[in-house]
# Entry
Amino acid sequence: MPAMQADGKPGLRVGVLGAGSWGTALAAASARAHPTVLWARNPAFADQLARGRENTHYLPGIPLPAALRVTGDLDRLLAHLHGPDAEALVVLAVPMAGLDAACHAVAAGLARHGLAQASVVWACKGIDAVTGRLPHEIAADHFGALPGVSTGVLSGPSFAREVAQGLPVALTVASADPVLRDRVVCALHGGAIRVYGSDDVVGVEVGGALKNVIAIACGIGDGLSMGTNARAALITRGLAEISRLGVALGARAETFTGLTGLGDLILTATGDLSRNRQVGLAIGRGRPLDAILGDMTQVAEGVRCAPAVLALARRHGIDMPITEAVCAVLFDRVPPQEAVSRLLARDPRFEGGDR
Ligand SMILES: NC(=O)C1=CN([C@@H]2O[C@H](COP(=O)(O)OP(=O)(O)OC[C@H]3O[C@@H](n4cnc5c(N)ncnc54)[C@H](O)[C@@H]3O)[C@@H](O)[C@H]2O)C=CC1
Ligand SMILES: O=C(CO)COP(=O)(O)O
# Structure
């Protein structure tokens, strides 16, 4: 793949949808060098961000850059993307459950504003909880008929809080369109952020979605005090099942050893900033799922995603024993220790294949 441009786009204009932790961190990073508008779906919250210059709910204690504009009006974000020689980049940083609606609103808005050329990239990590569709399949419903709009996915091991604090991070943007990849690099690469390119959209999406489920499994193991050997086994065998399903869906195997596969899996399975890992830890320590979710003010995508992943795997004839165990614990009231015993009781296998 050719080298990508990290500078030289004076006309780049960025709009970020979703003022949760990740959207806020991405918008703040982009605003360092490019005119950036952040959209929050709740206008009162947008107003609070714009005035208070801090996302007190999702990233408390971290000031927003002065250059970042915040709005609760999507038309203002779209109007911001206009300009002489403007190159428009829209980042969808809403949770998976909001992706369809966000794509719909942006596609309609681009048409309304006469923005025929734009790049749209999503940053959510999940698959559709009902249909099992990957994000690019949802996006294709809305942008597929717009020839000037290209799409892609941004992923990688990246806790929003660390990114917002300016700590080093490496991300990957995957798209068939090199112009989109360059725009994302221009928007974010620099300082403590590195952005790599890929054209394996399916691999990047599958890695991002499924690592959340394995992170819940690792949290459960750690909550049960199963030890670090067990955690390493779950990560490694988790990666094996992620790769199996990903390859069956058309991904390249090597993507799963990269930032958006192994990289993000290690981060989420071991880092205590992970919401998915925290759900698993609490389950392993004996808290019921309803109580855990009732207390959470942020999204843990792996919970909604796990049953859809399992259904998808079954449709493709793929064995995913760890995902199955997570679903059994979360939704079938199987005690975590019992699920571990079932995993350990599986027949011996040949590592590295289905022999
Ligand atoms: N927080 C992180 O460190 C990272 C998160 N992500 C992914 O980014 C996506 C967003 O996550 P976060 O910002 O962390 O979530 P969050 O829980 O911090 O914030 C969610 C935001 O989305 C809004 N929202 C909730 N449901 C919505 C819907 N149906 N439609 C539109 N907006 C909705 C909320 O009002 C809130 O502003 C998730 O898919 C997550 O997996 C990816 C990389 C890092
Ligand atoms: O995706 C993430 C880090 O790359 C964030 O993980 P959680 O959603 O588990 O917090």
